[in-house]
Amino acid sequence: YLQNPQCRSNPPSRFERETLHTMKQMCAASADENGFVMKYDEAYNLIKETYGGSMQITEDCKITDWQGAKKAYHFQKGFGIDLGKYQNISKEDLVTLQNTDGGLIPYVQKGGKLPPIELIKDCQQKIYDFCHLENTEINRNVTHYGKNTGETTCIMFFNRETRQIALFNKTSGDLITAEKFRQNYFNKCIDSGQVGKPTN
Asked: What backbone torsions phi and psi does residue 29 show, to the nearest 5 degrees?
């Protein structure tokens, strides 16, 4: 007796069924005047279900799955993540996510592909490993100037050899960003204790 190799040995999970259902609805839906194929609440709930966990990096710092997904472009670019290991996501998808005003929710509302949770876990592990390298240094009083968030006091992990940084909000412990900078900009950030440009 030969089984059809196309048949799955396990039935699809609830998440797989819901994702397929959502994707079918999205394909059948016509976009509204904003280009959205999904309502805000639907997008929010899908993201919340998909990215509900987090990884503790140090006692004071963590990376939520949601923030990991939002910053996946910077992670893959700055920490050598091989996107070829993950199905259904491309560098172009991550660039689109990175450039979508308002972040992850509007990106999903417009039909953007969610980065696989396995990719997010891989990114979190790479940043964890980076933060615990012997030659990674810490500055606990850095200012980050965000385009949407303004001025935030941060904890910065940085490595002079690799030019990589990981910034965490000093109050909440949440990741702000992690990436690799050009040498001149990296040196400027390290010397000044500032990342980003003041808006005033």
From this structure: -80, 150
Give Cα separations from 25 to 19, 32, 116, 135, 141 (angstroms): 10, 14, 20, 49, 47
**165, 177, 40: which is closest to 102 by C-alpha?**
40
Q: Model confidence over 45-72: pLDDT tens digits? A: 999 999 999 999 999 999 999 999 998 9
* Rounded (10°) angle between helices 14-28 and 40-50: 150
Nearest-angstrom CA–CA distance, 138 and 168: 11
pTM exceeds cut of 0.85: no
Closest to 172 measured CA to CA, from 130, 192, 144: 144
Residue partners of 71: CB distance under 8 A and separation at least 6: 175, 177, 178
Q: Any idea what the Cα angle at residue 162 is, between residues 160 and 168, rounded to 5°?
A: 75
Joined together, the tokens standing for residue 51 give 């990215």
